[in-house]
Design goal:
alpha/beta; 4-stranded parallel β-sheet; 37 helices; 55% helix
């Protein structure tokens, strides 16, 4: 029988990796069994390729449904990576022994374990999103055993406990793997006896995984190996230790019998420390990848090196960080470690020392240090001839067909959307935006025509990692983009959010996803009681319906949504505008103006009639904020739905003593804001306003002057001059006949006649010089 040793490790722990490397050098196994996907066994030799630079990840995905996949990231300090490098360097047999993902990703596997549909990704399956389920005590122990040990020891989380007792451990005293296995055994015994175990949908998956790993271990033991090393997560070590227990073979066979299978493929992909971090949502991630990299590569003088890098980083940002400050910080970190009983400074000690001596308690420099030296920005690379992920392959093929080359050299790109290739380029760049790859940034197109679209292109190397991550959403860039937007639509709580998503989908030519979002928008709008939310959704939808044809998009469904939203918004407009304060009234006015412009853009008489009826109802309200009512009257007057006499009557009513002077000033602000032409060409309106102002006593006038000046400041300088000339011409008052504001300058009017002849005269007509 071969000698078998089980090494329980922590994923991405440099302390585990260092201890494992020493143990493997001493044990010299001829077979290494590693917790990982057996579906990727053929890719293990690529680990030794000189072009393979961690961090990298193994991606295993369903061949028929690439978005059904799992990622297995590795850094240089990951114990599994160290084990693979050791085995390849020493000619040992290497195998992954986890439950194949041909089983884990197959349809029906979850139901075999009777997992509830609400469960998230199972334990051991590395995903990009954290679990968000309430856990029974036993489930919490199994998913975060280090957290349980940390709580007992008084640490805030499992990573800091592990960092103190394993990562910051010096020397080779004792067998750390025996101690870890002993601790996990005690935790597992407590979890197995705790109530609520049967309620966990992940329990069957974990049972099947451990059964398969034990089966692989027994199979290797029957072969001609002398020393077998098993590298697995610390939680699984006690379960694998009983691989030869009496009756275990039969139990494992029953567990694995009849499991479904599907066809899968695997590939190596570049990864980044940012995505290796816990903050990215990666369940097996670590808080500080760059710090762990420093621990792995510079064990002897890690504190001095880390602080020196922090000082260089600050100096690069033109911040003070002298050598004396670095020396002081290093001494402070050593002292803090000594006070806390540590052999060497931990990251917490260095963080406090840097904050006190290099950053002077300023959080901004510390945020920079955290991003660069705690999480890190390191990118990995894979050999050029290694199998790629589905989205990478689709990206490369699309770039080739569209003659777009990803390169760091920035450049401008102007597209003519009437050309098929340029339209496809626009769709492609917009799809990349939806998967968080802003390769192109939209610019203002110069020249005439609505068919032009300008982009500024600049490729960043780290976006390769985002392409790989997008494989979790689809097999192509288009599928991944559509999946991302559908997920956003499911999370959206407002109709306005959904209307914005529709625009992005039409820009990216994702009609299928657009239909789904439109259905979601209609469903949400049908039950929404938030009139302002409906109003915010209308302007972008109207613009799409009016100009979407430029992109050869079908805007019919969008127009259908608009036709459904306008009556709902109109019906609730008056009620929504009740009891508004100044800020809310300003926001309501902006929404009303936006909807009015959107409806005018569509040029649909039925919609305009419905909306004008709602504005009429709002214009007659006496208990609505004056700024809102004034704007409603102005919009109706501009549309000629109210004549000058009707507008004047409402202005007189608003300026009456019964309404109050402050309310009157608000009404004037809503009516005149941003345009004073109504006073120039609005009949008696200027006379009514002038009479009201002249009748105010000194105290009220002084009180209202700031409000009135703010209103008139929004009117253009030319309009203010015209209003002033009209008042000056008529002295202290403006008569009804003369107050129309019709100021005719014959000489100036004559200057425009030649232009009017060119614009208005029918083609071929001969006009004389005197013809107006």
């Amino acid at each position: 029988m071969p000698e078998v040793r089980i090494f329980g490790i922590r994923h991405h722990g440099p302390g585990s990796a260092r201890s494992l490397r020493a143990a493997l050098d001493a044990f010299r196994p001829d077979c290494l069994l590693i917790e990982g996907p057996p579906d990727a066994d053929a890719l293990i030799p690529l680990v030794a390729d000189p072009a393979m630079t961690p961090p990298v990840a193994l991606l295993v995905y369903r061949a028929d449904r690439p978005q059904t996949c799992a990622f297995f990231p590795f850094a240089a300090f990951s114990p599994e990576w160290v084990a693979m490098r050791h085995g390849l360097d020493h000619g040992a047999t290497l195998r992954f022994i986890d439950l194949p993902h041909a089983i884990q990703l197959a349809d029906g596997f979850e139901t075999r374990g009777e997992a509830p549909e609400s469960e998230t990704a199972p334990a051991g399956l590395d995903t990009l999103e954290p679990a968000e389920v309430s856990e029974a005590p036993s489930i919490a122990v199994r998913r975060d055993p280090l957290g349980e040990l940390a709580e007992v020891a008084g640490f805030p989380d499992g990573e800091r406990w592990w960092d103190a007792f394993v990562e910051s451990r010096t020397g080779e005293d004792g067998d750390v793997f025996a101690a870890i296995q002993e601790a996990m055994t005690a935790l597992r015994e407590g979890a197995e006896t705790a109530p609520g175990q049967d309620a966990d949908g992940d329990a069957f998956r974990e049972e099947a995984r451990e059964a398969h790993m034990r089966t692989c271990l027994r199979r290797a033991a029957r072969e001609d190996f002398a020393r077998i090393a098993v590298i697995c997560g610390a939680w699984h070590a006690p379960a694998l230790a009983r691989h030869d227990a009496k009756g275990q073979v039969g139990l494992d066979a029953v567990t694995l019998k009849g499991l479904p299978r599907t066809k899968v493929a695997a590939a190596w992909a570049p990864w980044s420390y940012e995505r290796l971090a816990t903050a990215s949502g990666y369940r097996a991630g670590v808080l500080s990848p760059e710090w762990y990299d420093t621990l792995w590569n510079h064990e002897g003088r890690v504190a001095a090196r880390w602080l020196a890098r922090a000082a260089a980083l600050l100096r690069a940002e033109d911040l003070d960080a002298s050598p004396a400050s670095v020396i002081e910080a290093a001494r402070l970190a050593e002292a803090l470690a000594g006070f806390r009983g540590r052999a060497r400074p931990s990251l917490d000690d260095l963080h406090e020392a840097a904050q006190a001596t290099l950053c002077f308690a300023d959080p901004a420099p510390m945020a920079l240090i955290r991003r660069k030296l705690v999480i890190g920005e390191r990118l990995g690379a894979t050999p050029p001839d290694s199998p790629g992920t589905p989205v990478e392959a689709d990206f490369a093929a699309t770039c080739k067909s569209l003659r777009l080359k990803p390169e760091a050299v920035a450049g401008d790109l102007v597209l003519d959307l009437r050309k098929e290739n340029d339209l496809a380029r626009s769709h492609f760049l917009n799809r990349l935006h939806l998967i968080d790859i802003p390769w192109g940034r939209r610019q203002q197109a110069r020249g005439r025509g609505t068919f032009k679209e300008a982009w500024f292109l600049s490729w960043q190397p780290e976006w390769v990692v985002d392409l790989v991550a997008a494989s979790a959403d689809g097999g192509t860039v288009a599928e991944a983009a559509a999946s991302r937007v559908r997920r956003q639509a499911r999370k959206a709580t407002r109709v306005a959010e959904l209307s914005g998503l529709i625009g992005t989908l039409l820009d990216a030519d994702l009609a299928g996803a657009a239909d789904d979002v439109i259905r979601a928008l209609n469903d949400r709008a049908a039950v929404s009681a938030d009139v302002f939310d409906l109003m915010e959704a209308l302007p972008p939808l109207a613009e799409l319906a009016r100009y979407g044809s430029v992109r050869s998009s079908d805007t019919g469904p969008v127009l259908g949504v608009v036709r459904g939203l306008v009556p709902r918004a109109a019906a609730g407009l008056t009620a929504a505008c009740q009891s508004l304060d100044d800020d809310a009234a300003s926001a309501a006015k902006a929404r009303i103006v936006g909807v009015h412009a959107a409806i005018s853009l569509l040029e649909e008489p039925d919609l305009k009639a419905v909306w004008q009826e709602a504005l009429h109802g709002l214009a007659d309200q006496s208990h609505v904020h004056g700024r809102v009512v004034g704007r409603a009257v102005r919009l109706l007057f501009d549309d000629r739905a109210l004549d000058a006499e009707q507008a004047g009557d409402r202005l007189r009513l608003a300026l009456s003593r019964a309404s109050g002077t402050v309310a009157a000033a608000a009404w004037i602000e809503g009516f005149l804001e941003e345009s004073g032409t109504v006073l120039i060409h609005g009949g008696t309106l200027l006379a009514v306003l002038d009479e009201w102002l002249a009748g105010l006593d000194g105290t009220l006038f002084a009180e209202l002057l700031p409000l009135l000046r703010r209103t008139f400041a929004t009117i253009s300088q030319g309009e203010r001059r015209a209003i002033g000339e009209a008042l000056n011409r008529h002295g202290t008052g403006v008569s009804d006949e003369e107050g129309s504001g019709r100021i005719l300058d014959a000489e100036r009017a004559a200057r425009v006649l030649p232009i009017l002849r060119l614009l208005l005269a029918p083609s071929g007509d001969e006009t004389t010089e005197d013809t107006p």
